[in-house]
Please model this.
Amino acid sequence: MFEMSLRRKLLELGLAALVAAAIVPIWLPDWLPLQDLPQHLAAIRVLADYGDPALNLSNFFRITPFQTQYLGYYSAVWLLSWIVEIQVANRLFLTACLATTPYALRYLLAELDRPQFLALFAVPLLYNPFVLLGFINFAAALPLMLLGLGLCAKLRDEYTRQTAISLGVVGIVCFFMHVVPFAFLAIGAATLGLRDSAPQTFWRWLPMLPAGLISILWTFFSPAGSSATKAVGEDAQFRPWREAFSQLPDWTTNITHEAFDDHLLILVGLVAIFVVITGAGLQRDKPSDTWWPPVQRVAMMAPLAMVAYFALPLSYDWIWPISPRFAIIGILLAVPALPEPTRWPKVLAAAALVAVSCVQFYQVADSFQSFSRDEVGELQAAIDEIPEGQRVAGLMFRTGSRHVRFSPFLHAVAYYQAHKGGAVMFTFADFPQSPFRFREGNRPPRVPPRWEWKPGDVNPREDLGWYNYVLVRGGPGRIQRQNDTFKRVFKSPHWSVYRRAERP
Model:
C-alpha cells in the first residue's frame, strides 16, 4: 500500500510539474502575442473602470453585459481585477484555462473507467491556434466541457444531489464561456443520461435544463445567437475538404514559425497509433450494464466533431473561424476510446508525450519572448505619449510576426483603451458579442468589414475626423503626407503617434 501511495504521489508531482512547465510561456514575456487579447483587455477595462472620469469611458460607451455570451470570461477577469491589475488578472485566468485542461480530461477518463495516463494527450494541445488567436473564452470552455462530461458519467452511475448541482453549475458556466464546447457537453449529457427507465433518465437530464433554457433564449433573442443560426447561409464561406485536411496541423498545434510545430500533430498521432497497436486486444474494461457503454457515448462525439470540421463553413459575416474549432474538440473526445497498453508500452507512450510537450513549451516560450523583446518595441512609450481618455485610431500596416502565426499586432490600438481608457478603432464594440456598445450620440463613423486589415485604404483627412490621435505601426501611408491634418508627435523604429493638428 505504501509503495502504491508513493507511486501515486510521484505521478501527481510529475503531472503538476508538466502543467507548471506549460504555463511558463504565459508569464515570461511582457507582451503576449495573442491576436484578440488587446480587444478583450479593452473590454474588461470598460467594465472595471466605467465610472472613472479620467478615462472618459462612460461618455463613449454604454454597458450591455447580457448581450454577450462571453459573460463568464469577462466576469471572472473583472472580479480578479479587484485584486490585481487587469493584465495580470487575464494571465491568471488564461493560466487556469490551460492548467485545468489535462486534469479535466483525467477526471473524465477516471469516471469512464479509462486509463488516466491518456490525459497526457491533452498537454501538447494546450497551445493551439485558438489560444494564439486570443479566443480565451473558447480555451476556458474546453476544460469545462470535459469536466461536465465527467460529471455526467458519474451521475449516470450514481445519482446524487451534489453531483447534479455541480453539473448544473458547470453547464451554465460552460455556456457563458463558449457555445461550441457547450453544445458537445449538452450532447454528451443527453446520451450519458439515457437510462433504462424514463424517471431515471429525467433526473439525469434535469441538471442541464437551466443551461439549455439559457442557450435557447440566447439563440433566438440575441444578435449573436441569431448570427450563429445563420452561419450556414448562402453568404457563408466553405473550404474544400482537401484544404481542410491539409490545414489540420494549422488548427490544432501549429502556432509558431518553427519547423517542430509543423510535425507536432504527426508526432502525437504516432503516439496514439502506438497506443492502439500495443493495446489492441487487451480488454480489461469492466463489463458494461448497457448495450451502449458510456465510453462509446462520449467517443461517438469525436467523429461528429470531425464531420463538423470538414462540413461547416470557415466563416460567416463577422464570425471567423467556425469549422476549425471542432478539430481540437474532436481530438480531445477521441482520447477515451484509446485502449490501455501493457506497462512498458504505456511508459514509452507517456514519456513520448511528455518529451514532445516539453519541446513545444520551450519553443513557445522562446517565440513569445522573442516577439515581446524584438517586435513589440516601444509600444508602451507610444501609448504613454497619448493622454488619458482620448479618441484614438489605429493604422496597423505591419500586423504579423516573425516568431508566431496570425496577426498579433492587428488590434494593438486596443492596448491604449486597456491602459488609458477613451475609445479606439478598430474595436469589437460594434460586434454582437461585445459587453459594451458605443453611445449613438458620441461614436466614430462605422467602418466597413475588414477595415482593420486595410490601413492603406484609409484617408485620414476624410475618414479619421472623429479622432484626435492615431497610433501607427509601419506605414505610415497617407497620414504622413497630410501634415495639415495630423502632426507626428512620437517616432520609433516600430511605432508612430500622430496628433490632430491645431486648426487655424
About this structure: Strands lie at 61-63, 391-396, 423-425, 436-438, 469-473, 486-491, 495-500. DSSP finds 22 helices and seven strands in the chain.
